[in-house]
Amino acid sequence: METVIVLGKGDLAIRVADWFVHSERYELAAIVPVIPEPTWTQSFAGWARLNGVAVVESGHYKDLPEALLANRRIDLAVSIFYDRIIKAWFIDSCKRIINLHNGPLPRYRGVSPINWALKNEEDEHGVTIHEITPGIDDGSIVGQLKYSIYPEIDEVFDVYKRSLEYGWVLFQQTIPLLDRISLRKQEHEKATYYSKRDNPRLGDRGGFFRHQETVAH
């Protein structure tokens, strides 16, 4: 069986990890939760403990067991809204490492992609599975799914919940084909990127709801 690690938070990370638990091909060796865990979603670490899956309590991939980090023992690492920049040394420790990003790459790289899409009054958004590189959301695309959004009526929370369902569909359709999919390089000239330093410009789109100030990632 192939060894897999899941890094991330919330409902979708739990669904993905549970899929691996029940897979005949993969063995879920450990999970790396976002720490502190957000209070507005289910506890990924709590799910893992209930299901007998090892938890990296610090929330940092550097604290994975040495047995996993040595000699590329991690066949697949999957990031689902993980909040740390993943360094080259860890990328090199994995035979393959992919990320599910809440945006239609190459557009909306970086943080708060849903907030920015609504701020920019887009009528379409997306979820993307891509290879992780030392850059930010610039790795080759494995799969992508686009869907309609409605800035005139949608709150960030509405689109975020929608994105979890589309992300789950994309994951289920993509992972069984992972070894056979031809990767598609991103068209970097079409990229847009937002960092945390841009967040003040979000205004009333800075939270899950217009009256909040906390930015959703």
Q: Report the mean per-residue pLDDT as an integer.
A: 95
Number of contiguous helices: 6
- How would you spell out the order of helices and strands? EHEHHEHEEHEEHE
Enter the CATH topology name: Rossmann fold
Using the alpha-carbon principal axes, give the shape.
globular
Class computed from helices, strands and strand pairing:
alpha/beta
CATH superfamily: Formyl transferase, N-terminal domain
Output the radius of gyration: 17 Å
The largest sheet, given as strand count, sense and whether it forms a barrel, is: 6 strands, mixed
Tally of extended strands?
8
Strand numbers in spatial order across the main sheet: 2-1-3-4-6-7
**What percent of residues adopt helix (DSSP H or I)?**
25-40%
Q: What is the CATH class designation?
A: Alpha Beta
Fraction in beta strands = 15-25%
Low-confidence region ranges: none
Distance between the first and last residues' Cα: 33 Å
Q: Give me the CATH architecture, please.
A: 3-Layer(aba) Sandwich
Number of self-contained structural domains: 1
